[in-house]
Write a structure and sequence with these properties.
By secondary structure, the protein is an alpha/beta fold. It has helices at about 5-15, 20-30, 35-40, 40-45, 50-80, 85-95, 95-105, 115-120, 125-130, 140-145, 155-170, 175-185, 220-230, 245-255, 260-310, 355-370, 380-390, 410-415, 415-420, 425-440, 440-445, 465-470; strands at about 190-195, 210-215, 235-240, 320-325, 330-335, 340-345, 375, 400-405. It has 22 helices and 8 strands.
């Protein structure tokens, strides 16, 4: 399928002109970034904004992945000598990966399955006969296939092999799989349970020790929390719709009579669902819901990060910055209006016998450098340290006392950039400097830190790392 056709589909999907898609894809393929395209190439894209450009990129990537998989499947089936014009039409018309995989399933190279073993024993003709569900003597027909040579000693063994073949046909039926997939989306529940003897070890997952809810209404943070519990071997997760609803769908499609042959088909259908289809579609839904949860979590992360980066700067003010702590004390730095480190010290405001001394140090620094603001990190002991500062008698009222989000300050303090600037200073001093600077100008300071380390999202280390980096 030509990429021009992709452009047309994207234009229709996004409600923009095809020429806008053409220009955007060309620029992206040449290595242009989204900010560059949306700001400096508006005349080429018809003034698409950064969101529209990102949507074009994402949809183009999806279609290219789909097309690459389609060509690989066609090549595989052609190599087996089983490619027909009808099959090519079906494959070319598939709009999703799951649809492609359903069509490919009967042709996919398999390990030696129970159905394959039954075929080797020559049981496929009887399977086809029973699958037609005409009124015949099942036992008599099965007796004809009993063979010591082929290691089929009884009619029960014959019928078991026949059901294995029929079960595989049911599992590989494109229409049936799509119906069951839809049932999963509409009615499946997700259940999580704790492994026995893991209750104390998995205390942080206690909300999910015995949890159940509708799959498609499970919020992203809960989905990611349960998956983390499963990855840490604390929880076991299952996803399934009501068994009765699934079996009704399959019975209605495959059971066409009420005789002894249809009973064999019924048994095969049940085996197909329980042993193959349910497991396969559950695996699909796990991937599908993980992608949805990732997408939502990444969006929340991006929005939070944007707000943090674009937070109003306090501006150029001489300030005191405090990285709070209980046991090891609070690291205190004085910064000039350009954020240059003037002096650093440690105070212990949470030790009764050192409160007075700590107050005097703060007052002395404020007076010595004519400080205009005090920035306090919001980490451990943050609130307590803020309360301490606000109780200092003699502190000029015009000095603003502000709590600052310190997420990522420790990452920056251990970075090469921080070591280069403050090679003779302790890592905790560097962290306090970062807290002060991010109050003065959040964007200028936060861009020094890997976005994932700023800690403004949930489960950012559990989601697709390529997708979160791209966002």
């Amino acid at each position: 399928m030509s990429e021009t056709h992709f452009h047309k589909k994207i234009a229709i999907l996004l409600g923009i002109a095809e020429r806008q898609v053409d220009a955007t894809v060309k620029l992206l393929d040449e290595g242009a970034t989204i900010p560059f395209i949306s700001r400096y190439r508006k005349e080429m894209t018809g003034s698409l904004d950064e969101v529209q450009v990102a949507n074009v990129r994402d949809e183009m990537e999806r279609l290219r992945v789909l097309e690459k998989r389609r060509e690989a499947i066609i090549e595989s089936i052609e190599g087996q000598g089983k490619l027909t014009p009808e099959l090519i039409t079906l494959l070319r018309g598939a709009e999703t990966i799951s649809k492609l995989e359903d069509i490919y399933l009967p042709y996919k190279p398999k390990r030696r399955t129970r159905a394959a073993i039954a075929r080797e024993k020559g049981l496929e003709p009887l399977a086809q006969l029973l699958f037609e569900q005409k009124k015949i003597n099942v036992e008599a027909e099965a007796q004809l296939y009993v063979s010591e040579e082929k290691d089929v000693k009884t009619t029960d063994e014959v019928l078991s092999g026949v059901r294995d073949i029929i079960a595989e046909w049911v599992n590989e039926n494109v229409e049936a799989r799509e119906k069951i997939r839809q049932l999963f989306k509409e009615q499946a529940t997700i259940k999580s349970k704790v492994f026995k003897s893991k209750e104390s070890e998995g205390e942080k997952f206690k909300d999910y020790f015995d949890w159940e809810e509708r799959l498609m209404s499970c919020p992203s943070h809960r989905m990611l929390a349960m998956r983390r519990g499963e990855n840490e071997d604390i929880l076991t997760i299952s996803i399934a719709p009501p068994d009765d609803a699934a079996m009704d769908i399959l019975y209605n499609q495959f059971i066409t009579s009420t005789n002894s042959t249809s009973e064999q088909v019924r048994l095969a259908v049940e085996d197909s669902y329980n042993r193959m289809m349910q497991v396969s579609i559950e695996s699909e839904m796990r991937m599908f819901t993980k992608e949805l949860a990732d997408e939502k979590a990444i969006q929340v992360f991006a929005e939070n990060l944007r707000e943090l980066l674009l937070a109003s700067p306090l501006g150029q003010k001489a300030m005191l910055a405090i990285d709070p702590g209980f046991r090891t004390g609070c690291k205190v730095v004085a910064l000039d209006k350009q954020g240059k480190l003037l002096e650093d010290t440690v105070i212990y405001p949470h030790e009764t016998n050192k409160i007075f001394e700590s107050k005097q140090k703060v007052l002395a620094l404020c007076a010595k450098y004519n400080l205009e603001a005090i920035a306090i990190g919001n980490g451990t002991a943050g609130r307590e340290t803020e309360s301490f500062v606000r109780t200092i008698d003699g502190l000029p009222k015009e000095i603003n006392i502000i709590m600052v989000n310190e997420s990522g300050a420790s990452i920056y303090s251990a970075s090469e950039a921080a070591r280069e600037e403050f090679s003779d200073k302790d890592i905790t001093v560097r962290g306090a400097v970062s807290i002060g600077r991010r109050l003065a100008d959040p964007l200028a300071e936060l861009v020094k830190i890997d976005a994932k380390s700023i800690g403004v999202g949930q489960y950012q280390h559990d989601v697709d790392q390529y997708e979160i980096k791209k966002k």
